[in-house]
Amino acid sequence: MADRVSGTEGYAEEADDLFVRYESHPAQDLHRAVLHLMPKPPARVLDIGAGTGRDGAWLAGLGHQVVAVEPTDTLRLRAMALHPSPAITWIDDSLPELAVLRARAESFDLVMLTAVFMHLDADQRAQAMPNIASRITAGGRLIMRLRHGPVPPGRRMFEVADDEIIALAGLQNMTLVFNEHAISRDARNQAAGVTWTTLGFVKAP
Q1: To 10 degrees, the CA torsion angle through 12, 16, 22, 24?
Q2: What's the chain's Rg over C-alpha atoms?
Q3: 192, 157 Cβ separation under 8 angstroms
Q4: What is the pLDDT of residues 98-118, one digit of tens each?
Q5: Cα–Cα distances in Å, from 101 out to 48, 94, 145, 193?
Q6: Are 138 and 203 in contact, with CB atoms under 8 Å apart?
Q7: Residue 21: exposure state from Cβ atoms within 10 A (0-12, 13-18, ≥19)
Q8: Cβ neighbours for 18, distance < 8 A, ≥ 6 positions apart
């Protein structure tokens, strides 16, 4: 799959910088507010838009079996080398279709989308949510982090409202259980005025 999947613009070109920046923020700190939503290991976890593999490696280290989806070859191949683990399965796939993942017919106790959904336009977001929800087990969780603020040069991003995501999730029998707004932990993003929304959902049994 080509690096030019819609929404991945700029990531291959900035891979060196992104690996330094992303890997400098420990996953357990980034996701501390939603630790209570995560299943006890061992569980099946899907990390969509896995990037540098930071979160997948952390989840695997906790004892989970992780499927990491990353469409940008430059990131995925480097992440596999940086975070080798038999507990992580890497897949070249992308939203909104998740065609490769759907063909595998797997389900997961937890699905994570960190800094991903704001790369999709409104039509793509509406198409993506059913494909995401169909991969979540009954009673499973979805944790999503959305970026707000100026768009970096060369990137494709959209401002996404909480209410839109909550409504899309509700159509898939997922209930909001967590909603938090916070400033960015990254110094460069702080200076630019970037903020984040973290949303947590539970799928109906």
Answers
A1: 180
A2: 16
A3: no
A4: 999 999 999 999 999 999 999
A5: 10, 9, 21, 35
A6: yes
A7: middle
A8: 11, 51, 52, 75
Give 15's pLDDT tier (boundaries 50, 70, 90). confident
Express each pLDDT in 131-145 by its tens digit: 999 999 999 999 999
Q: Which helix (H) or strand (E) holds 107?
A: none
Query: What's the predicted TM-score (pTM) here?
Result: 0.92
- To the nearest 10 degrees (0 to 180), the angle between helices 122-133 and 162-170 is 40
Q: How far apart are alpha carbons 130 and 123 in whole angstroms? A: 12
Please state the φ and ψ torsions of residue 119, each to the nearest 5 degrees.
Answer: -85, -10
Phi, psi of 178 (to 5 degrees): -155, 135
Is the distance from CB of 172 to CB of 126 less than 8 angstroms? no
